[in-house]
Inverse folding.
């Protein structure tokens, strides 16, 4: 029974992390949704907090002094991480949606040349951009922040 | 049926989808600038010292006095809420099927979006009107 397909379901950590079964794009899809929810929750809170401007300088300063705590600084950085990822992955999705990096229609002659050969480099470039933004944000929060 | 950017314009789903993609494109630029200025003050402050402390009351008031920035905030808020709630709507309709559920999800998203938009836009406009001119 060792050759039963169910035995082959086990991927192991490395193959799971590299998107063996679903492709890395599958994980990006999940991360895009999670980061989107994080950003929407932050936006709702952000609208309420920034509305406090109406109550004057003192109220504003009191609220802003709370954001200087390390825990809130870290949460603020996580929002930046979510934004950097969501924006760059969103650009990738829009480019593909509009037909860029999809490739031209071809006869299915073996060996097939999948559009993945064009989409994967685009994904890598944009994820490098996201990583650079995330590192810059972290650098700012840790070293140069307010 | 022609599905795409200018496909069957009577189909609300396509119109909302196209509007969602448009919002995403504008947000990538506007929100990118906003997030950069607000969350990378240490780095951008090296370029322009005025960007070093964007949350200081003096800078908040200065931005509040500008009609263009206030308008930009309201536009940004509307686009972000539409884009975000369109995504939430999509996710919820994947969990709950049926005509009734779809109507409730849409209604919930519209109510949440309008409420947040009214709070955000109202506070921005009132702040613009009431902030002291020096």
């Amino acid at each position: 029974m060792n050759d039963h397909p169910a035995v082959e379901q086990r991927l192991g950590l490395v193959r799971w992390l590299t998107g063996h079964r679903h492709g890395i794009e599958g994980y990006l899809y999940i991360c895009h949704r999670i980061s989107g929810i994080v950003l929407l929750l932050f936006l709702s809170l952000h609208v309420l907090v920034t509305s406090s401007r109406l109550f004057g300088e003192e109220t504003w300063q009191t609220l802003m002094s709370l954001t200087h705590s390390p825990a809130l600084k870290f949460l603020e950085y996580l929002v930046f991480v979510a934004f950097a990822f969501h924006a760059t992955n969103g650009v990738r999705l829009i480019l593909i949606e509009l037909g860029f990096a999809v490739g031209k229609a071809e006869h299915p002659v073996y060996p097939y040349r999948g559009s993945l050969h064009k989409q994967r480099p685009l994904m890598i470039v944009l994820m490098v951009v996201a990583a650079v933004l995330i590192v810059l944000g972290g650098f700012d929060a840790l070293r140069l922040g307010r | 049926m022609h599905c795409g950017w200018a496909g069957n314009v009577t189909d609300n789903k396509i119109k909302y989808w196209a509007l969602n993609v448009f919002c995403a494109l504008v947000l990538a630029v506007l929100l990118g600038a906003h997030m950069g200025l607000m969350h990378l003050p240490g780095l951008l402050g090296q370029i322009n010292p005025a960007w070093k402390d964007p949350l200081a009351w003096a800078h908040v008031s200065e931005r509040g006095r500008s009609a263009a920035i206030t308008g930009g905030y309201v536009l940004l808020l509307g686009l972000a809420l539409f884009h975000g709630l369109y995504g939430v709507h999509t996710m919820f309709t994947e969990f709950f099927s049926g005509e009734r559920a779809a109507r409730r999800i849409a209604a919930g998203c519209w109510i949440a979006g309008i409420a947040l938009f009214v709070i955000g836009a109202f506070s921005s406009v009132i702040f613009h009107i009431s902030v002291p001119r020096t």
Summary: The mean pLDDT of chain A is 84. Chain A has one domain: 5-144. The radius of gyration of chain A is 21 Å. The interface with chain B takes residues 33, 36-37, 39-40, 43-44, 47-48, 50-51, 53-54, 57, 60-61, 64, 67, 76, 79-80, 83, 87, 90-91, 94, 97, 136-137, 139-140, 143-146 of chain A (CB under 8 Å).
